[in-house]
Structure formats: C-alpha cells, structure tokens
Amino acid sequence: MKRLIITLCTALMAAVSFAAAGIKFDEIVHNFGTFDESKGKVTCEFKFTNTGDSPLVLQEVKASCGCTTPEWTKTPVAPGKTGVVKATYNATGRPGAFNKTITVKSNAGETKLTIKGEVSNGKKAPAGEDL
User: Fold this and answer.
1) What is the pLDDT of residues 35-77, one digit of tens each?
2) Count of C-beta atoms within a 10 Å radius of residue 131
3) Domain 19-120 = CATH 2.60.40.10
4) How far is the CA of 73 from the CAs of 55, 68, 115, in angstroms?
C-alpha cells in the first residue's frame, strides 16, 4: 500500500511538472525617456506569451507606488497565446527621474517589470543659471 501511494504521488508530481504554464515578456524594462510634466499620464504595454503547456493565469499585478496604475489580461492565456500588462505613470506634480516596478505574480512564477524616465517641468533656466 505504501509503495502504491509513493508511486501515485510521484506520477502526480511528474504530470504537474509537464503541464506547466510559462511566461516570456517581449521586454521587462520600458524607458519613456524625457518628457514634459504637462503630458500628464504616460502608458506603455508589456506584451507576454504563454510558453508553457497549460493556461497561464496572472494572479496579481501590483505597482510599487500609487503613481503607477497597472492593467492586465484577466482571462487565462492559452499556451502559445499572448496577453498584456499595461502600466500608466502619472507624471503630474512629479518632475525629475523615476524608476518604478510592477510585480506580476502568475502560475508561472513572479516577474518584475520596470518603467523609468525623466519628467521635465517645462521651465527653462536663464542663461548661465541652473534651476
């Protein structure tokens, strides 16, 4: 009986390992470059593909701060198909460099995405002076 249970457990673990979801993003870092604060919100898309043999489910997508809002494919992504994680950064009132992360948790593991850039405030320094 003990041998049967061990054999069944081993077979179950092998089946689970063969039928796993996988995730591959086209890019994991997006650089917005320098843009003016008056632009307000900027958005980018991180496209991903399910590289596994079973449906991929994004369980949680969380930004590192409130100035970044994520949106993502909420339905299971079939093997070989694609989905998207959108990241919107609100630059209003935030001049200067930024570097934010979006953590994606799925049944294929955890991935950290990064958005970065520099927000200018549109003001120009007089000749010979720094702002």
Assistant:
1) 999 999 999 999 999 999 999 999 999 999 999 999 999 999 9
2) 9
3) yes
4) 13, 17, 19
